[in-house]
Amino acid sequence: MHITQHHFGAYRDKNIEEYVLTNNNGLIVKVTNYGATITSIIVPGDHGDCNLVCGFDTLEGYFSEAYKNNAPYFGCTVGRYASRIKDGKFSLDGKEYTLAVNDGSNHLHGGLTGFDKKIWTAEPIQNESEAGVVMSLKSPHMEEGYPGNVEVQVTFKLNDQNGLSMEYEGTTDQPTPLSLTNHTYFNLSGFEHTIENHRATIFSNRHLLPDETNVPLGQVEDLTGTAADLSHGKIFKEAFAGLETGFEHYFLFDKEPGKRARVAEFADTDSGRTLEIETTEPGMLFYTGYFTSDKLRRETGDQFGRFRGFCCETHRYPNGPNIEDSLGSITRPGEKYTSQTIYRFGW
Ligand code: BGC
Predict the structure, then answer these.
(1) Residue 42's closest CA among 135, 158, 141?
(2) I need a surface site. Which of 60, 153, 212, 214 has the fewest CB within 10 A?
(3) Residue 152 in contact with residue 331, Cβ under 8 Å?
């Protein structure tokens, strides 16, 4: 179990680092403090190492025109509020707030300069059973329109059970929407194929119904028996046959709020590689990369693009500040925002 770090590039005259976590089974996770972004997750294989996620080997990759124009948010930490907020507006304790709008009429993934585009402060950690890095960020009052000075921390930790844990913490000096997630796109074939031959199981058959601008307003829809019902496991190809643009569904979990549970599992039927998701979050925006540009590739040649990666965005309700009874969407002074998600790999 060990961690190394090296120079990854420069941004705004600041050095950006990449941290390489390696466990005793040869699983490698790379994270940079630009956007607290997972750049690689590599498993050993009979024919050499295999990278299972969308990302780049150099910082420049995140600044290419093709990447910036497509804005797929590869591997980054999303905040201050993940997913969409309707028309970039919400009211809180009788006050109206207007956020930056960057997705048609809506606010998406924290706005024009979300947490994914910030330089985080990084502190490596290591003990006998884990190697990791703690990333911290301060977000000032009214940044992107959000009230309150917020301090957040994400701790990435890898162990020998092949689990990568992400633990989030946050505090604020004024009530504010806060919902953090990681936006990694997985392809368990290592980009040899699309994800169409993966078998996907999500332990839920309910989602929040989105409106015509792709924002849920609070209505819950039962998916039982539909193409999007993954509760008994399904090959993506079969699901996609009935879903033209794939998945972009916020699944709601039947579990005690705040309690960590296994909520999804995936297997690549060709290679046998697996991924399990555990989370404390009330739901997960499950996205299968319909909008990812086919022009994007890793420097090694790994081809990204449509249906070539899926994201398990575990977070508070999309548009939560505008949905009554949405669980934990607002953090208040004196409270601590907490959240944990684990990605667990098999090969
Ligand atoms: C959203 C997609 C968006 C993607 C990249 C996902 O979380 O659901 O609509 O295209 O992020 O921005």
Answers:
(1) 158
(2) 212
(3) no
Measured in whole angstroms, how far is the alpha carbon of residue 190 from the centre of its chain?
A: 18
What is the mean pLDDT, run by run of 10 residues, along the chain of 347 residues? 96 96 98 98 90 98 98 98 98 97 97 98 95 98 98 98 98 98 98 98 98 97 98 98 98 95 97 97 98 98 98 98 96 98 98
Express each pLDDT in 37-65 by its tens digit: 999 999 998 878 999 999 999 999 999 99
Q: Is 315 a catalytic residue?
A: no
DSSP SS3 for 173: coil
**pLDDT tens figures, 158-189:** 999 999 999 999 999 999 999 999 999 999 99
Residue 85 CA to ligand 1 center (angstroms) comes to: 13
- Within 10 Å of residue 144's Cβ, how many Cβ atoms? 19
What is the rounded CA–CA span in Å between residue 308 and residue 189?
Answer: 9
Closest residue by Cα to residue 253 from 209, 217, 206, 216: 206
> What pLDDT does residue 8 have?
98
Domain boundaries, the chain: 2-346
The residue among 23, 19, 24, 26 whose CA lies nearest residue 4 is 19
- Tell me the best of 69, 73, 293 to mutate to test the pocket of ligand 1, counting ligand atoms within 8 Å of each CB and taking the most: 73
Note the CATH number of domain 2-346: 2.70.98.10
Around ligand 1, the residues with Cβ closer than 6 Å are 71-73, 83, 248, 285, 287, 291, 313
